[in-house]
Amino acid sequence: MTDFISQPTIAPAGVMRPTQVVVNLDRLAANFRAIRRKVAPAKVMPILKANAYGHGLVEVARLMERLGADYLGVAVLEEGLLLRRAGVKTPILVLGGIWGSQIPEFLRADLTLTASSIEKLEAIDRAAEAMGITARVHLKIDTGMERIGVHYYNAEGFLEAALKCRHVRVEGIFSHFARADEADPAPSHLQLERFNEVLSFYERRGLPMPIRHMANSAAILRFPEAYFDMVRPGILLYGVYPSAEVPHTVEVAPALSWKTRVVYFKVTKPGHGVSYGWTWAPDRMTRIVTLPVGYGDGYFRSMSGKAHVLIRGRRYPVVGRICMDQMMVDIGWETAYNGDEVVLIGEQGDERITVEDLAEWAGTIPYEVLTNINTRVPRLYVGKLAGDKARV
Ligand SMILES: *Cc1c(COP(=O)(O)O)cnc(C)c1O
């Protein structure tokens, strides 16, 4: 027994609901190593925001720490605090914007802050001085997102101001691509040029260069000139390519599958509408099975009438509206029994349903499919690296 479960509810393991996200830690590890090989000697900062893209924040962080990740990246203070509370010791950069009142919390937890303006930088400096410590910060340069960060054309004053902060150590400096996942590389090259221009500040002044980082998953696949000293893979770490346009220059495979089981079976007569609104009714006698999963778990309601699932190695359509906690599948005159495994994302027999399939059905991107699977769904960790940590 090597698998272990991260269970948000209080049900004992044996009576837990059968709807589960299964995360293969060996796959995650293989993906991480493939990325590390590709970008070496650059360091790797796995991005773990939004519950590690649905894979489980703490468990993925622990794995990355075991594999020797150089840095961990999260979006908000709370994610960093959860990791520290779980005993994660690896440096953690919080990528998002910060509120002044939060700064002491960052510092107490030894989290690295993103300084995205002179005002924030000075607030960090003051807070660190009051605590008698030195804050570790990475400066955020906006080269084309118009999100947080100082515009590349105003960066000189920002970098100068950072030199004057005596209680701040500028450990890193970074920017973010807006269009690295598109076929046309020109916008990314423009952003790179802008970032390089900002970085020349350190050379011109003969100052030591902080850790430079810019590459997200798409840039890791396409732009070696954007690796600098460290890269920030998110979706690629989880084995999903950021778009259909990017080359597969790093071999990765999905680590997550989403499963449930048949909870009910019935025969439905022609013309008898299924689910809310009776938006669909069979035109023949058919067998309808109910699955205990719905949009309340993050299975998008907008996939009603489009989604398919796998049962006994075959693809079947989800019919009628997806409910909050249940949905129905038309298996025609085929066989399924209560308790049969149903694959929502993943493989069964020779069939496979991908995160990209769900994204297409829902009219969104793979990122949102993954992050939308919410914490009501227990995560089951499998693979050799799941070790003997079996627990509830
Ligand atoms: C989310 C995020 C990443 C990772 O993006 P992917 O496309 O998932 O690789 C990298 N850097 C920053 C600043 C991010 O917000």
Quick recap of the structure?
This protein has helices spanning 25-39, 49-53, 57-66, 77-85, 103-108, 118-131, 155-164, 186-204, 217-222, 355-362, 366-372, and strands at 4-6, 20-24, 43-44, 72-74, 92-94, 113-115, 135-142, 150-151, 168-174, 211-215, 230-231, 256-261, 264-268, 286-291, 308-311, 314-319, 327-330, 341-348, 351-353, 379-382.
Main attributes?
392 residues, alpha/beta, TIM Barrel, Lyase, Ornithine Decarboxylase, Chain A, domain 1, 2 domains, 11-stranded mixed sheet, 7-stranded parallel sheet, binds pyridoxal-5'-phosphate
Quick check: average pLDDT? Answer: 95
Major sheet description: 11 strands, mixed
Task: Count the domains.
Answer: 2
Number of helices: 11
- Rg computed from alpha carbons, rounded to a whole number of angstroms: 24 Å
CATH class of the largest domain: Alpha Beta
Share in helix: 25-40%
Could you say which overall geometry the principal axes of the C-alpha atoms support? Answer: elongated
Q: CATH H level of the largest domain: which superfamily?
A: Alanine racemase
How would you classify the helix and strand content by structural class?
Answer: alpha/beta
Secondary structure: number of strands: 20
* CATH topology descriptor of the largest domain: TIM Barrel
Which molecules are bound in this entry?
A: pyridoxal-5'-phosphate
Distance between the termini: 13 Å
- Uncertain spans, ≥5 residues at pLDDT below 50? none
Strand content: 15-25%
